[in-house]
Specification:
Structural class: alpha/beta
CATH class of the domain at 2-176 and 216-240: Alpha Beta
Strand order of the largest sheet: 3-2-1-4-5-6-11
Number of strands: 13
Membrane topology: Single-pass type II membrane protein
Domain NAD-dependent epimerase/dehydratase: 3-241
GO molecular function: NAD+ binding; UDP-glucuronate decarboxylase activity
CATH topology of the domain at 2-176 and 216-240: Rossmann fold
Strand content: 15-25%
Order of helices and strands: EHEEEHHEHEEHEEEHEEHEHH
Cofactor: NAD(+)
Organism: Candidatus Roizmanbacteria bacterium RIFCSPLOWO2_01_FULL_38_12
Shape: globular
Largest sheet: 7 strands, parallel
Bound molecules: nicotinamide-adenine-dinucleotide, uridine-5'-diphosphate
Amino acid sequence: MNILITGGAGFIGSHLVKKFIDDGNEVYVVDNLLTGNKKNISDLEQEKLHFFEEDIRNFDYKQLPKIDLLYHLASPASPTQYKKYAIETLMTNSFGTFRLMEFCKEGNVKTFVFASTSEVYGDPLEHPQKESYFGNVNTLGPRACYDEGKRFAETLILAYKNKHDLDVRIARIFNTYGPNMEVEDGRVISNFIIQVLHNNPITIYGDGKQTRSFCYVSDMINGLVALGKKDDISGQVINLGNPDERTVLEIANMIKDLLNSKVELVYRTTDSDDPKQRQPDITKAIEVLNWKPEVALEDGLKNTISYFKKKLQPFS
Ligand code: NAD
Ligand code: UDP
C-alpha cells in the first residue's frame, strides 16, 4: 500500500511510519520539522520512505502517487509548543487540512484518518468523556488555538465527506507518551523524566490534583492502524486512549520512585483553562475496532525512562 503520513517525523507519527514500513508499505511523509525531528525516522528502511521536508499548507500533492491510506497528524500537540506557535497551529489545522481534503476530493486517497484530540472536550463537565459530548472550550483562552483548530478540522473533514462521499475517520487521541518525544516538548511525562534525570526539581503546574489518563505509544499505534484498516466506518469519530486515570502528583511520584530519586516538587501557576480531569470512555473503540490498550503505566514509564536516559547520555 501507499501510505501518506503528515507529521510523520513527530512523536506519534514516527512510530506509525515505522509500523507501516516494517509491514512492507511505501510510506510518504510530509513534515516541516516545526516540532518533529528527522532523527526519529532516519534509522528506518530508506528505500520505502519518501520524506518531504515541507509545510502541509504549501506542499504540491500532485507529485504523490495514489494513496491508499492517509494519516493527517501534522500539528503541534504539546501545550508549550502550540502556545508558542498559535497561528501556525490554527492555520495548519484549518488551511492545511483544507488542502488535504482538496487532494482527497480529487480521487487521490482511498481512506483518510485525522488525528484529533481530547482537547475538543476542553475542560470537560462530563466525565469520563464519550464521543457524544460537545465539550467545554473557551474560544479565547490560551489553549484555543489548538482546541478550535482541531474542532474546525473535524467539521471541515465531515463536510467534505458529506459533499464528496469520501471515506474519512477521526481519532480523538488522549494523552499519549513514549520514546521519540523531544526533550523540549514540554508535556508532563517527558518533562518529569528529564527533570529527575537531571536531578532538578519537578515542576507541578497548579496543585497537581488535576488528572490525565496516559496511553503508551505502541497501544496508540495499534488503535490508529485498526481505525485506518476497518471496513465501512466512514464518518466515525472514535476516542483512543487509556482510561487509567491519575493525578499529576501521582505521575510525579511514580517517576521519582522508578528512578529512586528524592528531588523536590515545586509548584508553578498553570493556565486558566488547564482541564481539571480527563478520562476517555473507550466503549466505542472496543466495540467498533476491537481495540483496547494493553501496556500498564509503570511498564510504559520504564520504557520511556530508558529512552530518555540514552538520549541525554548517549555514550554512557
Ligand atoms: P509532535 O509535535 O511530536 O508531531 C507533530 C508533527 O507535525 C511534527 O513532526 C511537526 O514538525 C509536524 N508539523 C507541524 N505543523 C506542520 C505543518 N504545517 N506542515 C508539516 N508538518 C507539520 O506531536 P505528536 O504528539 O506526535 O502528535 C501528533 C498528532 O496527534 C497531532 O496532530 C496531535 O494533535 C495529535 N494528538 C497527540 C496527542 C498526544 O498525546 N501525543 C494527543 C492528542 C492528539
Ligand atoms: N504539567 C505539569 N508540569 C509540567 C508539565 C505539565 O504539572 O512540567 C501538567 C499540566 O498543567 C497538565 C498536565 O500536566 O495539567 C498534562 O499536561 P501536558 O502538557 O502533558 O498535556 P495536556 O493534557 O495539558 O495537553
